[in-house]
Amino acid sequence: MARQVKLTGIGLGISLLIGFTAEPVVSRDNSQLPMGAKQQLADAHGGSSEKSFLGLWQTVDPLDGGIITASITDNDRDGKLELRLSDTFIRVCQAEAGSPKTGRGIYEGSGTLASSNLLNVTATVKCFDSNNVVVDSLPVDWKFKLVGDTVEFTGTGLGDNTAIFHKVSY
Fold first, then answer.
1. What are the pLDDT digits (tens) for 70-86?
2. Separation in Å, CA 79 to CA 49, 71, 109, 148
3. Domain span holding position 80
4. Would residue 11 count as lying in a domain?
């Protein structure tokens, strides 16, 4: 029965003393990687443009400090990206005198690639009342621009501000 050993700084030193060598697990050309891992590696290093946007992204709203989470998928594999965005506080859903709005809601929409690093998104914000019933729907337009390993997010609701999203999951 083979024993698995985690090589740490000390573990590596001991294993070298007793004659083990640290060989790479995969070849330089990644031919030994499973197909899914090869695809993730390609996507992370300049794969197709649409796939660069796929994943779970987060940022802090520059205007109110809310946490914004964006999920970008291509579930239909048709090149049209689907977006679902949640925010801990949505200003356009803020309660006003006599309004049932609660500041809670969700954004849903889809996007198309305008260029290799620019995604245009058309979405709808749906505002909820205290019973989680949609009481208002408003159209919004956004731009997601890939900049290195982040996305700059601009458009309706941000004024002159830009929110910087960081990918937290593929």
1. 999 999 888 889 999 88
2. 10, 15, 14, 21
3. 48-169
4. no
pTM value is 0.65
Residue length, the chain?
A: 170
Q: What is the pLDDT of residues 52-71, one digit of tens each?
A: 999 999 999 888 888 999 99
Q: Which of 148, 96, 147, 144 is nearest to 120 (CA)?
A: 144
The reply to whether 143 falls in a domain is yes
DSSP 26-92: S-TT-TTS-HHHHHHHHHHTT--HHHHH-EEEEEE-TTT--EEEEEEE-TT-SSPEEEEEEES--GG
CATH of the domain at 102: 2.40.128.120
3-state secondary structure of 16: helix
d(CA 42, CA 38): 6
Please report, for residues 113, 150, 154, the alpha-carbon distance to residue 121 in angstroms, rounded to integers and kept in the order given: 9, 17, 10
What span, in angstroms and rounded, lies between the C-alpha atoms of 139 and 69?
A: 19
